[in-house]
Design goal:
The chain is an alpha/beta fold. 42% of the residues lie in helices and 19% in strands. It has a seven-stranded mixed β-sheet with strand order 12-13-14-11-10-16-17, sandwiched between helices. Strands 7-6-5-8-9-19 form a six-stranded mixed β-sheet, with helices on both faces. Helix 3 runs antiparallel to helix 7 and helix 10 crosses helix 11. The longest helix has 19 residues.
Length: 476
């Protein structure tokens, strides 16, 4: 694995073979049969213990994220905390699995429902959240009675291996949680494997289409969360100082490498240049460096190729007429000259035909586009092929309410730039940001990892019991 801060390989991990995957699936299938019949009380007890262990080991987990992903330590701790919210939800899975019951739908006939696990689930995860995104999947999948096979991103596998160790310590039976590392070849094998019943995926939209098409072709239930290019409208009546501070954090946090980052702002009514200067003031205060360094609050991007791609998009936007308000292309960090560094960058008045605007840039770059009115702004926002998250900054309640209904996005913020739902709600976008009909974690995660069964019952002995009772009463 390559450390993005140094540009050097720190460690290596063998890629799984077809035989390794076959073995993992075989043990998962057998383990799941027993685990599905384990009482909810025992399952939730293990989830509670796992939660304690994640808390106790979050320093080791965070340092593995810093060394392999590059994000700063505080951001890594925040990622673990957000992932742990799903463990909190899984600790109460007994309430989420309650069914329905109706008496006497016909004479002496009742009906009730139960939710049962789908079987063996595979999670295919991205590099940018090595703890949080897998934890959006495996706590709910396991708590609902499934076995889980985790395929972590190749650049960031260590946190997943640590998670397997913690599950073992928490008392989870062998075979219920498995880690299989590898590249796209192992992903293809997972999608085609007959022993895997469902696939959860988070990554880019082109890959999400492949996951959905190949997975469903092989008879699997699939949820595939794709890319994003989140927009925020900033209205002239908003508190611009408040908006600028939160936009800077949302655009540059984690070096912009998150699907809920805020790479695009639509500035309404001529406020673009002023807003750009205000965001710049906050961006200039961000200390970029090695994630374990004192006071560091932004690390490098994941790879040399990622840096080159992002710089190319910035160069192209500048050639197309965008104004570079803050330029992070030439940033270097003393002592880490070979790292993949980019500083916060702000592009104002970006043309809508610039790839830096309409592509998922996945770097510490904020693009500002201009609109004369709310109507023009919402047309720009809804014109994006993605619909993951979107926000508005305004002090007008009527405008805010209208936006929440108008915007074509799965997660919406009002004066909240990164509207990521808590774990007892569900996470997911619209359009090219989500393929499939169920979001991840929370109540919809429970639906994805379970199958509903309706049971209709009648007891003929009941009429015989009534007859015997009446005969006994006559004798009395």
């Amino acid at each position: 694995m390559e450390n993005p801060a140094t540009g050097k390989v720190d460690s290596e991990l063998l890629a799984a073979s077809q035989a390794d995957l076959d073995h993992a699936v075989a043990v998962a299938v057998e383990a799941q049969k027993k685990w599905a019949r384990t009482s909810l009380a025992k399952r939730t007890a293990i989830m509670f213990k796992m939660r304690e262990l994640v808390l106790a080991n979050q320093d080791e987990l965070a340092k593995s994220i810093v060394n392999e992903h590059g994000k700063d330590y505080g951001d890594a701790i925040g990622e673990i905390q957000r992932g742990r919210e799903t463990l909190d939800f899984a600790c109460g899975i007994n309430a989420a699995l309650k069914g329905d019951y109706s008496f006497d739908i016909s004479s002496g006939v009742d009906i009730h429902t139960v939710s049962q696990p789908v079987g063996v689930v595979a999670g295919i995860c991205p590099f940018n959240f090595p703890v949080m995104v897998p934890m959006w999947m495996h706590p709910v999948a396991i708590a609902t009675g499934n076995a889980f096979i985790l395929k972590p991103a190749s650049p960031t596998p260590t946190a997943s291996l640590l998670m397997a160790k913690l599950y073992k310590e928490a008392g989870l039976p062998d075979g219920v949680f498995n880690v299989v590392s590898g590249n796209r070849d192992i992903v293809t094998k997972i999608l085609e494997h007959p022993g895997i019943d469902a696939i959860s995926f988070v990554g880019s939209t082109p890959v999400a289409h492949i996951i959905q098409e190949v997975g469903t072709k092989h008879g699997k239930r699939v949820q595939a969360l794709g890319g994003a290019n989140n927009h925020a409208i900033v209205m002239p009546d908003s508190d611009l100082e408040f908006a600028a501070q939160h936009i800077a954090a949302a655009a540059f946090g984690a070096a912009g490498e998150r699907c809920m980052a805020l790479p695009v702002v639509v500035a309404v009514g001529g406020i673009g240049p002023k807003l750009a200067d205000m965001v710049k003031a906050f961006g200039e205060k961000i200390k970029v460096g090695h994630g374990l360094g004192e006071g560091v609050n932004m690390g490098p991007v994941i790879s040399k190729a990622a840096k080159e791609r992002i710089v190319g998009l910035i160069d192209d936007a500048e050639k197309r007429g965008a104004t570079v308000v803050l330029d992070g292309r030439e940033l270097t960090v003393d002592g880490y000259e070979d790292g993949f560094w980019l500083g916060p960058t702000i592009l104002d008045d970006v043309p809508l035909d610039a790839p830096a605007y309409y592509e998922e840039i996945f770097g510490p770059v904020l693009t500002i586009v201009h609109a004369d009115s709310y109507d023009e702004a919402i047309e720009i926002v809804n014109g994006s092929e993605f619909g993951n998250g979107s926000a508005i900054f305004t002090n007008d309640g009527g405008t805010a309410r209208r936006f929440t209904l108008d915007v074509e996005a799965g997660m919406v913020g009002v004066n909240v730039p990164i509207p990521t739902p808590v774990a007892y709600y569900s996470f997911g976008g619209w359009k090219e940001s989500l393929l499939g009909d169920l979001h991840i974690h929370g109540p919809e995660g429970v639906k994805f990892y379970t199958r509903l069964k309706a049971i209709t019952s009648r007891w003929p002995s009941e009429s015989g019991l009534h007859a015997a009772t009446m005969s006994f009463q006559r004798q009395e």
